[in-house]
Write the C-alpha cells for this entry.
Amino acid sequence: MRCNDVNETTRKTVSHVALVKAGLRTFWQDQFGAANIMQALVIFWLIIIAGGMAVDLTRMESQRVRVQQTLDRAVLAAADLDNQADPQTVVEDYFAKSGLSNVLKDVTVEQTIAGKTVTAQTESDIVTMFLHMVGVNTLSADASGGAEERVTDIEISLVVDISGSMTENDATGTQTKLKTLQTAAGTFFDLVINEQTEETGITMVSVIPYNFVVNTGDELLSYFNTTDWHDYHDCVRFYDSDFLDRAIDQSATTELVGHIWLGNNSYATPSGWSSSLCPDSSNRAILPFQTDATVLTDYVNALTATGMTAVDSGMKWASALLDPSVQNIVTGMISSGSVDPMLAGWPRAYGTDGTMKVVVLMTDGINTDKYDLDSQYKSGDGINPAMSDIYYSDSSGSSDPYDGWYVYFAANDYWERWYRPGDPTTTSDDTWIAPHNMPNDLIQYSYQDIFSLFATYDAGDYFYYYSDPDGYWGIDCGYYSCWYAWKGDVPQGHNNLSWPYVAHDTYDDADTRLRNICDTFKEEEVLVFTIAFEAPTDAQTELDYCASSDGHSYDVNGADLETAFKSVASQINHLRLIQ
C-alpha cells in the first residue's frame, strides 16, 4: 500500500471516530435534558413535603408546649400542701379552663401525711395537613409530668401521762406502765430524730409530762408574766377561755396554782411533794425545744409518776409550744445554751412550706377533777399572797422545829390572845400569851408559806385543834372500847388549814376544755396522734375526738405501746423526704 493510501485511510478512520463521538455527544446531551426535567419534578415534590413537614411539626410542637405548660401548672397547684381542694379536681379544672379537657387522660394522686404527689398524662394527636401525602396522618403531642411537695422539718409536742396509775404494772405484768412508756418513747426518739441538718431536715421535740397539772419548769416559766403569791413551784392554772386559743399570752398575768401538800405527813416537813397540787421537781418539768435523741431519752427515763390526771392541761402546753408566739422564748433559750442554735426562728409560722407541726398524746386514764387553793387562801387582793394568823419568832425558836410558832386569836381575851403550840404530840407544853409578852421579831406567814412546811391536816391540828384555852382531855367510849379525846372548841382556823382547797374543775369540764384545744389544732392543720394505753372507754372516746383521723388514734395494751410509737414515728418519717 502506498503511503498516501495509508494516510487517506487514517484520515477516514479519524473522521468516522469524530462522527461517532459527535453523535454520542449529541445523544448524551439529549438524554441529559430529559433527566433535568425529572429531577426538577422530584426536587419540587421534596420541597413541598419538607415545607409541609415543617408546618405540621410546628403545629405539633405548639400544641405540645401548650399542653405541657397547662399540665405543669395544674400538677404544681394540685400538689401544693396549702391547697385543700381535691388534687384531681384541680388538675381537671386547669385543663378545662385552657380548653384542653379532651387531651387529659389520667391523673394519679398519692396523698399522705407527708405531703402530696400528683402526676398526669395527656394524649393529643394533630391531624397533618401535608404529611398525610406520605402516609403520616397524625402526629402525637402527648405530655406527662408530676409535682411533689413534702415536709422536711418537724415540730413535735409529745404529751405523756405521769399520773399515779402509771406506777401500776402494765398488761404484761412484768413492769410498770411508766417503764413501758420510757422504753417506747426512747424508740420513738431514735426513729424520728436522724441527721439534723438543713439539707436532711430538722426535728424539734418538746416533752410535756402531766398529772394534776403541768410543771412548766423555772426557765420556761420565766418568760411568762405570773402571779407572785409564792415561788415554791412552776405550775400555772388555766381557765376555760384559755382553751379557745393555741397560744399563752406572755404579757397577760398567768395564775400560779396554789402551793399545798394534801393530807398529813405525821407533822414532818413535806419532802418530794408526791401529794402536792404541783409536784415540783426537775424530773417532772417540761423539756422544751430539743433536737438530741439522747437528751430526750435520758429525760423521759428519769420521769416519776404520781397524782391525778389533767390531759387538757398537757394539751394546752403542747399547743403553746408549737405556736410561733414563743419564738422569743426559743431565742432566749438559745442564748442561755439550753436550746440548739439551729432552731433559730422556730416554731415557724403555721403553713410554712416544708414544716409540719405534730402532737403525740398518750394517756392511761380519764381526766379527773382539779384542785386548787380556795382563792381566800391564795391571795387577798389578786396580787399579794393571802396571809394567815400564824407567826414565827426567830428569837423564840430553838433547834426544835416546832419552837417559835405563835397563832393570833383576835376574839380571845387579852391574856389569851396568842396561842403558842409546843410538841405536836402533846398539849402539856402549849401556852397562851398576852400581847405585851410577845417577842418583837414576829414574822407573819402566808398560807402558802405554812403549806411549804406542813401538810394540810397536820397544819390544822398543830396550830388550831388544841388551841381552846378551856379545853381538856376527856374520855369517849364506844360500844366496845373507850379512848381519850380532846374536849374543847375547835376553831374555824382548823378547817381553814385542813381543807383549804376546792375542786375548781370537774372531769366533765376538763373533757370540754380538751375538745376545745383540739379544735384549735384542726384550724391550723396540726397533726394529732393519740395513744390510749390500757385506758378506759371514756378516755378512748376523747382521744378519738382529738386525733386527726381514725388512723391517727391508737388503743393499745402492754408491749403494744412501743408498736404504736413505732407506727407514729413511721408516719412522721415520711416528712423527712426532700421536696
